[in-house]
Amino acid sequence: MPLDSKEMIAMVCYMKWLSANVPIGKHVRGDEPIELEIPDRAADPEKGAQIYATNCSSCHGKNGEGMWKPDSSTYINPPLWGAYSFQRGSSPSRVLKIAAFIKANMPDKIAKWQKPFLTDEQAIDVAAFINDDRIHLRPQKKDRTMPDYADTRVKPIDYDTGPYLDSFSELQHKFGPYKPIIEYHKAHNLAVIY
Fold it and tell me: Looking at the chain, which runs of residues are DSSP E strands?
């Protein structure tokens, strides 16, 4: 996009507006993720499917297809899997990352950051169901020659593609149990990011 195009100027103006009165290099209230109590067990996509059917499908669709505005201009609620959902490898494709968002915000108009509706385990289980690539297809990054994390020291523990600085499998990094990974990382002075 040309730097002097009206679209680029509009985006830059919007970003400047968003950052107005935000201290440089410091945190602002509410920018931290909600805390998750990580269970001792692996996330359970089957339990997550039941939670999804009860609490999520009315907005995101039975098949995760999302919900369009009546004029078809955009989504009211985004697709969670399928050809038009987020890419595999993106932040929402990480179980713990999206579970924190789900806990703080879903179901829409019911959950609040200060008053979640789902328990931590329920949020993690429904995140596992949404992100279960064994049953849900999603777009793939076009260029797979570049690693998503060139520096494996900062790779989140719930990222499902190796290599890792530990010996846990890709499946365990995807679904857990996460506590052994966390304990290993702490014991070996490795970052614990999720």
Answer: 67-68, 75-77
pLDDT tens for residues 59-81?
A: 999 999 999 999 989 999 999 99
Tokens of 191: 């970052």
User: Could you give the CA distance from residue 66 to residue 143 in angstroms, rounded to a whole number?
Assistant: 26
Q: CATH second-level architecture of 42-139?
A: Orthogonal Bundle (1.10)
Give the Cα separation of 89 and 92 in Å (integer).
8
pTM given for the model: 0.84
Domain ranges in the chain are 42-139, 148-194
Burial of 36 (0-12, 13-18, 19+ CB in 10 A): buried
H/E stretch holding 122: helix 120-130
